[in-house]
Amino acid sequence: MAFREIRRFGDPVLRTPAEPVTVFDDRLRSVVADLLDTVDAPGHAGLAAPQIGVGIRAFSYNVDGEIGYVVNPEVVELSEEQQEGPEGCLSVPELWFDTPRARHAVVRGVDADNEPVTVSGSGLMARCLQHETDHLDGMIYVQRLAPDRRRDALRRIRETDWFWQR
């Protein structure tokens, strides 16, 4: 188990859809342990496997004291009621942009032993579940922004010191 380096915006692994997990073994359990260790740090609400350079469908979450993970997650329910508020990303450090999301979300998947898991929540948890599932589909949250906001976000990303130090 280890705290893993987080890949930043511009890394191709973040734009590549993750592969479903088909083998439930010690290697998977090791990745899950690393996801849990890495998300268990101040300011970390969620972390998808591609963000640590592993192209599988798995993510961890750390919201309001609730820490866990889901393998092969699928969003199965989104409320029609929306929320819009600041959203950040460990792969886009130090920048926050108002991002529209469903107010409530339900994700189903499995654990490292291929046993069913359901995670649901509203507010920040709903935002986290949608954000991390997007990562597994090769999408970074700035892609969800309206065109004018997205242009501004991409400009601000290019202006950061970390963008040029990848």
TrEMBL record:
Belongs to the polypeptide deformylase family. Keywords: Hydrolase, Iron, Metal-binding, Protein biosynthesis. It comes from Saccharopolyspora erythraea (strain ATCC 11635 / DSM 40517 / JCM 4748 / NBRC 13426 / NCIMB 8594 / NRRL 2338). Removes the formyl group from the N-terminal Met of newly synthesized proteins. Requires at least a dipeptide for an efficient rate of reaction. N-terminal L-methionine is a prerequisite for activity but the enzyme has broad specificity at other positions. Fe cation binds at residues 89, 131, 135. PANTHER family: PEPTIDE DEFORMYLASE (PTHR10458), PEPTIDE DEFORMYLASE, MITOCHONDRIAL (PTHR10458:SF2). The keyword Manganese does not apply. GO terms for biological process: translation. This is Peptide deformylase. The active site is at 132. Its EC number is 3.5.1.88. Gene3D superfamilies: Peptide deformylase. HAMAP family: Pep_deformylase. NCBIfam families: pept_deformyl, PRK00150.1-3. InterPro entries: Peptide_deformylase, Peptide_deformylase_sf. Binds 1 Fe(2+) ion. GO terms for molecular function: metal ion binding; peptide deformylase activity. Its cofactor is Fe(2+). The keyword Chloroplast does not apply.
